[in-house]
Design a protein that fits this description.
The structure holds two protein chains of two kinds.
Chain A lengths: L2 H12 L1 H21 L8 H15 L4 H13 L1 H7 L1 H6 L1 H6 L1 H25 L4 H7 L6 H11 L3 H25 L5 H23 L1 H29 L1
Helix pairs in contact in A: 2-3, 2-4, 8-9, 8-12, 8-13, 10-11, 10-13, 11-12, 12-13
Chain B lengths: L1 H20 L6 H16 L4 H12 L1 H4 L1 H5 L1 H9 L2 H26 L11
Classes of the chains: A mainly alpha, B mainly alpha.
């Protein structure tokens, strides 16, 4: 780099402008690809944008902290966006109310399957106990999942990674599984995505239909609360 | 847009205060969602502005997960030692959760008229 370019880089790398701008650019590039693929779930925009950013930060030897100083402005919007989920939920409430039994039964069955199958499979393949416990809340939205991991003896920062990977796996794979099951009802598809893969799955559901999105949002909120209440109890009984 | 965004932040703030004040295991924004839902039920629906702002926000919900997702780069080393059991567990368990949730719901809906369901 010439001295002048170097100075510009020193300035930019210390300012939040760059982190924010590259986040938006990477996402727009990812979303363009996603749209060009006809919203194919395999071209998941979160997956593509994160891959671009990780490569970029690694190549430029930029720390995540520096990057996040800018990206935090996008991250902050997760809060108000979560609150905004109340609106599609309200719009779809008539359908939700007519499905009270399936919603409650699906929630309890899905929530327990998510936590217990993750522990059982990890144990079967020889993962350590703290790793098994870090996996247990993987289907729950990040802030709740990290709190649960801490309480049951997992490693919160490991849980944070597992939650994101779970979200992407569900968003990418759900369509193929539901199609194979010949399941078409957007309410059931959305709810199951929300239980299995929280916000990232919910984001995908909204791109498909408002009804699927509303049910995914409902499932995400309910599963977070239920897992936080139930999982420490269930693990206590099993000990 | 400004008034809609303000409303969302006010509900988030209320959720945050109640969640922390009562030591609930639910994050503030999720509680804020519940409060806004109740307010909408009382008010009889969102106004036009709140409706469009939230639609715009939710259309790009995936964008909001990108900064946290990128954080995977600093924790990747934690996954390195046990990547195979972790990957198998995540894959199989995610598929199992999708299948079990959907099947249980479908079973419970037997006899109910299907809506939005292609014959």
């Amino acid at each position: 780099m010439t001295p002048q370019l170097n100075e510009i880089w020193v300035y930019l790398s210390a300012s939040p402008l760059l982190g924010l701008t590259v986040t938006l650019l990477a996402y727009q590039a990812a979303f363009w690809l996603y749209r060009r693929s006809g919203m194919n779930p395999l071209a998941n925009p979160v997956l593509i944008a994160v891959t671009i950013l990780v490569l970029l930060l690694t190549l430029t030897a930029t720390s995540y902290e520096t990057y996040f100083a800018g990206a935090q402005f996008v991250h902050f919007l997760l809060g108000p966006a979560t609150v905004a989920l109340a609106i599609p939920l309200y719009t779809q409430f008539r359908r939700v109310r007519s499905m009270l039994l399936p919603v409650v039964a699906g929630l309890v069955a899905g929530s327990l399957t998510a936590a217990l199958s993750a522990i059982a499979i990890a144990r079967l393949f020889g993962a350590s106990l703290p790793t098994q416990l870090s996996l247990a809340p993987k289907s729950v939205t990040t802030p709740i999942a990290m709190g649960i991991a801490e309480r049951i003896g997992g490693i919160p920062s490991l849980t944070a990674v597992l939650v994101i990977v779970t979200g992407i796996l569900g968003a990418v794979g759900a369509r193929y599984i539901f199609d194979a099951m010949k399941l078409r009802d957007p309410a059931i598809r959305g709810f199951a995505i929300g239980v299995a893969s929280h916000g990232i799955g919910t984001a995908r559901a909204f791109q498909v239909s408002e009804q699927a999105g509303a049910f995914a949002a409902l499932a995400m909120g309910l599963n977070g609360a239920l897992t936080a209440l139930l999982l420490p109890l269930v693990l206590g009984w099993m000990r | 847009m400004l008034s809609a965004l303000t409303q969302l932040l006010v509900f988030q703030l209320a959720g945050e205060v109640v969640a922390r004040g009562l030591n609930l295991p639910v994050p503030g924004p999720v509680l804020g969602m519940l409060f806004l839902f109740l307010a909408l039920a009382l008010r009889g629906g969102p106004g036009h502005e709140l409706q469009t702002t939230s639609q715009n926000l939710l259309q790009h919900l995936s964008l909001l997960f990108v900064p946290a997702g990128t954080g995977i780069m600093i924790h990747l080393h934690r996954v390195a030692d046990e990547w195979l059991p972790l990957l198998l567990s995540l894959l199989i368990s995610t598929v199992a959760t999708l299948v079990v949730t959907a099947l249980v719901m479908k079973l419970c809906m037997r006899g109910q008229p299907a809506q939005g369901d292609a014959p």
